[in-house]
Write a structure and sequence with these properties.
The chain starts with a strand and ends with a helix. It is α/β, with parallel strands linked by helices. Helix 1 packs across helix 6, helix 3 runs parallel beside helix 4 and helix 4 runs parallel beside helix 5. 50% of the residues lie in helices and 16% in strands. The protein has a seven-stranded parallel sheet with strand order 3-2-1-4-5-6-7, with helices on both faces. It is built from eight helices and seven strands, in the order βαβαβαβαβαβαβαα. The protein binds NADP nicotinamide-adenine-dinucleotide phosphate.
């Protein structure tokens, strides 16, 4: 049976992905801060669930805890880093900006680092990062969020380059969702909102096909294309 670890499995996309992976025979390591929610997921899935409390805003402790979870599961084929936070921050207060950077930048990199270390030691596997379409352009309503997502996507790309240089068959998948119906879907102009179930199914297909990059849902590629080509003066008026 393959083993996967999902960091951010207590809610939303990560929780649904745990269910999808388990339905395809994966044992799943479930990590996040809210242990009681993780335990509920572990009870619901048909395969083995390994619960671990990890707060990725504390990188040193989080790295140690992830190593412990890997050791408990003995071997891990697939890592998904779904944990993330973000705030609409019109007053540009430092608290939310700093928390976003701690979780989405330092926390993400710390988890990816431990995952890469394990995948390299076994010589194969896959790492998936849940970034966002927000990575594609700076956003004045949530500057830290959009910048942190650009970091995630580029860190994933950097690891893919690293594994290619090492000639290791380790896949890295950068997932960029649009709106998904979870507590993280913020803003008052939401559209094309996908259910977490649909998002998780599309992410699973991307994992199965070992894709380098995917927009979720697929039609968000149209928005991505627009976001990339629109000049600043148009974006500033939107
Ligand atoms: N929903 C959307 O519209 C959307 C769009 C684009 C991208 N995304 C991205 O998708 C990912 C998953 O978000 P979601 O939509 O599924 O939202 P969600 O339901 O709120 O899930 C967020 C997950 O992140 C975990 N998390 C937050 N802070 C953490 C910390 N310090 N340490 C460990 N885990 C932490 C939460 O677990 P605990 O609170 O239990 O720790 C939870 O499991 C995020 O990276 C988000 O940026 C979401």
């Amino acid at each position: 049976m393959p083993n996967a670890i999902i960091i951010g499995a207590s809610s939303g996309i990560g929780r649904e992905l745990a269910r999808v992976l388990a339905s395809h025979g994966y044992n799943v390591g479930l990590a996040a801060r809210r242990v009681e929610l993780l335990q509920q997921v572990a009870r619901d899935i048909p395969t083995a669930g390994f619960v671990k409390m990890i707060d990725i805003s504390q990188p040193a402790e989080a790295m140690q805890s992830l190593r412990e979870l890997i050791a408990e599961m003995k071997d891990v084929d697939l890592f998904v880093i779904s944990s993330g936070t973000g705030f609409i921050n019109p007053k540009l207060e430092w608290g939310p900006e700093s928390e976003t950077i701690a979780v989405n930048v330092s926390g993400f990199a710390a988890m990816a680092n431990v995952a890469a270390e394990h995948l390299q030691s076994r010589g194969s596997g896959q790492l998936v990062g849940i970034s966002s379409i927000a990575a594609l352009r700076g956003n004045g309503h949530a500057p830290a969020y959009s910048a942190s997502k650009a970091f995630m996507s580029n860190y994933a790309r950097g690891l893919r380059h690293r594994f290619a240089k090492l000639r290791l068959p380790i896949g890295v998948t950068d997932v960029q969702p649009g709106f998904v119906d979870t507590p993280m879907a913020k803003g008052d102009r939401k559209f094309w909102m996908a259910s977490p179930e649909k998002a998780a199914e599309q992410i699973y297909q991307a994992i199965r096909k070992r894709k380098k990059h995917v927009y979720v849902t697929r039609r968000w590629r149209i928005v991505a294309w627009l976001v990339k080509i629109l000049p600043d003066w148009v974006v500033h008026r939107l």
